[in-house]
């Protein structure tokens, strides 16, 4: 069926895009970027912690001295130089040659987001089921929904995904579950980390049921107290696609991420990516490669960790000092986010306009669920605002909550 006038597109859209709506986070960006608003809503890294002059100099050389490659087309899989460097980065987390990781099985992507999109293109037919933590990353929900898959949430607690709940969800899916999508370490949006013991249990369950695992790990190296538990991919080499990105450890503006795929899958991933983007940006890949080759990137990760640990503490202290009774929240050991549960009766989405009027922003919990849950939750970011702004934001937020509770 076509629209009534040529300029009416409603009925012309493909079925898969009809349900698309503006992400709650994107809709918020317009207001939260106003300087008077304390935004606890974003997920931006604190780029000012980078040695920007040195990065700028490196970028200049990339154009002037290496322009014939950095400004040219490249191959779909990504440059071998970068894929080798990516293997060095993964080795930090215990994913190395001894676990079967090889540059040959790395596919460079346009951020972690394209990695998710490629996984969906490869594995999801309309009506397929994806199992995912409840709550989970809003951008992954968008990708799975665009692929017309159904997301079924698996319950989690302070120790991460609950193994018995995963068993139950697999049984309920009646064989239609294509994969488990999981963010085991410093999860977005909760900040929660799956325990060592549960990692083994989850892998065991997936293995027994022949369920593929899509492990999304943008935050694993950003730990505040010791090292995080090793990724699932460091424990098992088959049946897992491992996704990560330089967005949180270097710079999201470059849009460089990657997938480490089982060897049997890698070729199809490259074909899907070529159909999608031809090849990742040669310039951005060159920038990341040069950064990893010539700059102290391990030290930079430590700097990010220190800055974020201080801000996490500022947020947790402020919540403890100021939140109304009945509010609870997670205590992340890394990453960028805290997930709070509001006192009974408060609706995070309904409260948001009043919070913005009080010059503080957060992300309502409903965005992180495919099933309408999360009305009593909010996600708070601590990576971007400095500690004094975080404290001021929590002061404003608690004022709004006290007013709501008094209504
Ligand atoms: N996965 C998760 C869990 C994320 O939190 C994000 C970014 N917020 C992404 C993927 C996307 O990463 P990128 O910005 O590199 O596309």
TrEMBL record:
InterPro entries (UniProt xref): Aminotransferase_I/II_large, Class-I_PLP-dep_aminotransf, PyrdxlP-dep_Trfase, PyrdxlP-dep_Trfase_major, PyrdxlP-dep_Trfase_small
Keyword annotations: Aminotransferase, Pyridoxal phosphate, Transferase
Residue intervals of the Aminotransferase class I/classII large domain: 64-397
Molecular functions (GO terms): pyridoxal phosphate binding; transaminase activity
Cofactor(s) needed: pyridoxal 5'-phosphate
GO aspect biological process, one term: alpha-amino acid metabolic process
Subunit organization: Homodimer.
Entry's family note: Belongs to the class-I pyridoxal-phosphate-dependent aminotransferase family.
Protein name, UniProt field: GntR family transcriptional regulator
Native species: Winogradskya consettensis
Organism taxonomic ancestry: Bacteria, Bacillati, Actinomycetota, Actinomycetes, Micromonosporales
Gene name per UniProt: avtA
